[in-house]
TrEMBL record:
Classification lineage: Bacteria, Pseudomonadati, Bacteroidota, Flavobacteriia, Flavobacteriales
Source organism: Flavobacterium bernardetii
Protein name: Elongation factor P
Function, as annotated: Involved in peptide bond synthesis. Stimulates efficient translation and peptide-bond synthesis on native or reconstituted 70S ribosomes in vitro. Probably functions indirectly by altering the affinity of the ribosome for aminoacyl-tRNA, thus increasing their reactivity as acceptors for peptidyl transferase.
Family, per entry: Belongs to the elongation factor P family.
Pathway info: Protein biosynthesis; polypeptide chain elongation
PROSITE patterns: EFP
Keywords, ordered alphabetically: Cytoplasm, Elongation factor, Protein biosynthesis
Amino acid sequence: MASTSDIRNGLCIKFNHDIYKIIEFLHVKPGKGPAFVRTKLRSLTNGKVLDNTFSAGHKIDVVRVETQTYQFLYPEGNDFHFMNIESFEQITLNKNILDAPDLLKEGTNVMVQINTETDLPLSVDMPASIILEVTYTEPGLKGNTATNATKPATVETGATINVPLFINEGDKIKIDTTSSSYMERVKE
């Protein structure tokens, strides 16, 4: 049994007869009254996000997880197929378990958290950033580098990302997988 002082991003806990992953948390010490921890939890069974507040010192039931590296093979409807890079064992996960399924490129390595009690996959941790090629965007004009204006661009996985005006088709861009936002243009 752990307490609220052990809460961190990525921690998996049992709560309300389900298993949740902590996405965000904030320890709050108001001037008046007891401290508390404000959390944002994602259900690992159905993908729903829940806001919850734990009082300071509240006991939480932590789920023991093991992290293994898997390679993304291909999507098939709402199912995504992965292969363990050590044992070559394949698993199929539903789209709602993934944080940013529209940014997954075939061959990308991800970290899969597996419940040690049931040997079932709980969640998939994407790399912090991913490099993808822009397949469609409106053409950029010379001199459009000084403003903070953006335009939509479609990348090779089919996702739409807002990018600066100077990005053109064929450019490779680095994307932050947590916020699905443009980070920088990648030179080859």
